[in-house]
Amino acid sequence: MANLNNLIVYCEFEDGKVADVSLELLTKGRKLATELGVKLEAIVIGDKLEGIENQLFPYGADVVYKAEDARLYPYTSLPHSSILINLFKETQPQICLMGATCIGRDLGPRVSSCLHSGLTADCTSLEIGDHTDPKSGTEYKNLLYQIRPAFGGNIVATIVNPECRPQMATVREGVMKKEVYNDNHKGEVINLDVNKYVNDTDFVVSIIDRHIEKCDINIKNAPIIVAGGYGVGSKENFELLHELANVLGGEVGASRAAVDAGFTEHARQIGQTGVTVRPKLYIACGISGQIQHVAGMQDSSIIISINNDPNAPINTIADYVITGNMEDIVPKLIKYYKKNSK
Predict the structure, then answer these.
(1) What b/e sequence results for 215-245 when a residue is b if at least 16 CB atoms lie within 10 Å of its CB, and e otherwise?
(2) What is the pTM of this model?
């Protein structure tokens, strides 16, 4: 049966900063750990980690493990996996959370496969709850409910892992809310002896040179988003959305169908397979409102839907619905805002 050890978050670290997705997971982890009555732990693996704990303690971390070695940065699969696998064998955490990033998607499956623990990818919600095995009748208390859309988004599945530990899940950036737990919260720092956890063979791959292309499209933090779906109809019509976004001081987003149709670039995709956003205002143009898209924008403060189908699913979550053709309505909005913003 499961032991009740701690909850640990693998924290990604680049340019002296802990990744937002890791801080979001600490925020969620803090709530789950409090509910379970266990400690929240964080692990950072890399180089030049001095003072990194000061970024983690305010988010509720009780313990910060640091594995510091010049060979551990930039990230490579084998040493990072070895450190987690060997540490988890030692400390036996009951839950491990990671970002569903390039690193998390590489690292999570390696660790869970080696520890035979299972992993749920791309969770949209995490909760603690009980489970009764329908076959054996065995009751399990305080399991991690790993919740995600399944079967192409047609259902929302709740996945549990009754026996194997740790219960592992990855979560995309922006899905969980990042909130400081307590600015004055302090915890314990444990410096790991890296050589105890890795083999020399783990360093068979070394990175000679690395280039990261920064994306200049930042819809994640935009206060206003004008988003277009397949119903926008063309690349040219997307220019109207850009014009409206410029007038409002916002950014342009898109549904997967619009990106797949080539109307706009992938960096603008919102939803389960894109980014998650929480703007003050979300204007959805020609978006039907599939569950995968809604998962990425349902926490917007105000949602306005512009659609020629009065029964479009998105209308059920919209605060305001404008029924009509986007090509007629958007130019009127542009004209109106221009006139009133002088």
Answers:
(1) eeeebbebebbbbbbbbbbeeebbebbebbb
(2) 0.79
